[in-house]
Amino acid sequence: MKIADIANVLEAEILIRGTGLETEIVSACGSDLMSDVMAFGHENAMLLTGLINPQVIRTAEMIDALAVVFVRGKKPDEAILTLAKEKDIAVLATNLPLFTACGILYAHGLPGSR
Amino acid sequence: MAKSIFLSYKLPCEDLSSAGEASSGMKNTLKKLGVNPVDIKRAAISMYEAEINAVIHGKGGQAEVEITLDKVRIVISDQGPGIPDIEQAMQEGYSTAPAEVRSMGFGAGMGLPNIAKHADVLQIESSVGIGTSLIMEVKFN
Questions:
Q1: Residue of chain A whose alpha carbon sits nearest to that of B47
Q2: Is-above-0.90 flag for pTM?
């Protein structure tokens, strides 16, 4: 699923474009626990989280995630956005809660990371 | 590639928001060297978890990395309180991290088990009141 389509179905604001809106995301995980995120393998993945700190971007970097979606209307600060831009990681922000955002993406055919 | 590449980083003191710079630097070096992406990810996650631990529990410390043709060896050392019971610390879910660390998405007792899962070698040397060293190796496939 392309980042542009993900932004569309989540009614999300695109804050950082990362490698581009045509970038294909093949799996996603939703978690507020960064160590849990790192326990699994991810390929061309996206992370959805309600956490809002620079370590979210760092975690995304370590697992080679291509995009991060901040849920529940959380708005990342400049430090987070600067780091994401530096690491070429797309950043989206949606007002939807985590469960709903994950559900919508799953219903559109995006599987969970294993 | 030369016989060995050495990287050395000072880890921040109790500043979790800036933790991860060292792991990021190591990851970029492995990428430039053309190491297999799966192995890069295993090394990056292992070092990052250890780096976070050193900042949370060890009041910062030191990271020493040695990259050779067949593996990366990472040593993270701190002068923190040490681990009284390493077997207990290795259990998933066991944590002594303070609430503020948990609120940042860490300290749920998954760090050491994650390292054990991703690294080919994990050796923990710890003395109470003196500090802890984590020695990790990721072999290149």
A1: A62
A2: yes
